[in-house]
Structures are given as C-alpha cells and as structure tokens.
C-alpha cells in the first residue's frame, strides 16, 4: 500500500466494496465446514435484490453454486448474489468478518445491511425508514432490519435518486480499512478454504492491460453521490500494492468518473514501468 494516501483514515461510504467482507465471511464459513464452494444456493423472492447484477432477473428456484454466486458478487457486483451469500453464512458472520479483515471501526456497520435492506431503507416510503435508521442506535437499527418484509423489493430503480449515505444508509470504511481487507483476502487465498478467492477477485481486474501484472484484484462500489475503487496489484516480485480511491458528495452526481478511474490506470502504468513515482 502506498504510504502517502490522502485522507486514508477518514471513513467514507464504500457501496459494493462491502462485498469484500462478505467474501471473507464466506471463506471463514468454508473453513469451519458450514458451507462448501460447490454447495447449491437458490434464488427466491426473499433474496432477490435490485441491480446491479443478473440474478435479480433469474426465475424463482434457479440454483447457483456458492462459487458461481461469489464470482457474480465480485465480477459484476451482483446484489442478489451478495444477499444470497449473506443469507447462507449469516449476517453476524459478515459482521465478524469486519473484524477479521481489519476494519478499524466495525460497529459503524453493525447491524450490517444487505443490499435489499439498503434499497428499502434508503429509498422506500419517501425516506421514512431512512430517518428511523439515521436516528436509531444499533439495537433499534437491528429491529428495523428484522421488521422489513420478505418478498420482492418494491422500490423502482427510478426512485433511487436521493443521496442517502449522509444519513448512514451505506457501508463505511477508511481507505486503510479497504487496503487491509484486500491484503487479508490475499492471505486467505493461499489457504485451502480460500483457494477460489484469487480467481474470483481477479475475474474483473478493473484496469487496462491487466496482463502486465501477475494478478490484479479489483472491487468497486458506487451509490448516489458516492464512488469508490480498490485494487490489489501483484507484480510477481513478492510485493503487493493496494490502490484505493473513495469520493463522496452530499449532492447526487460525481462528475468526470472516467477521469477519476483513470488515476488508478495511471498508477498501474507507473507500477508496470517499475516505478513507485
């Protein structure tokens, strides 16, 4: 990890980067024998979320292996896949993974929302649930999550326009937290239980010309007013470099997203040239 990051210890909304912690919880569940990579998971209306992804459109009863579900969660940031895995390993297991992967303030994300929870709390009922979430302590928030109904999420994608992270409706981490999560997952990938992790995190490298490197692990996240990108780059010289970018605005829209992502591409070019700049 580059030591001179800007605001590396400031917690920011991270969106789908939270899925790194779901992956960590999954590896722990495999290690404990509670689940296997080839076990089947089933799409139901109680885990069906909203895009991004593909599984939200899968017919009820569709069966997907744990491995394929994890690949979709990371490579295409499939929200339904994420919630299927959270249901399979347990919400509390993902909360525990915050600790295992080195998060500096796990209670900030406890109770942990599923993606379905975020859509409902953030954009359902004209913000009424969002206000309760913002004002609630951990026990009140957990009660709110437990009271949410099952079945199809009745939030049109067109309604997802308000900035909600300012009221605590997102997942939060510092850039250092995210770097530690990537490094811990790289360690877990070298264990028998975590053997698929390297391929899962490298399926969508998020950088141009990834073949310049031995391996690139990538996970991004975005919501209204937020954008976060994270990469672990392995040059094959026993050195891992982690690049994390996170931006948040209190109004919708982040201009020049391509230029923002281009900063990571520029950093990768320097690494490929053998320079830390």
From TrEMBL:
One Pfam family, short name: Beta-lactamase2
InterPro entries in the cross-refs: Beta-lactam/transpept-like, Beta-lactam_cat, Beta-lactam_class-A
Domain of life: Bacteria
Annotated ranges, domain Beta-lactamase class A catalytic: 6-105
Biological processes per GO annotation: beta-lactam antibiotic catabolic process; response to antibiotic
Entry GO MF terms: beta-lactamase activity
Name the record gives this protein: Beta-lactamase class A catalytic domain-containing protein
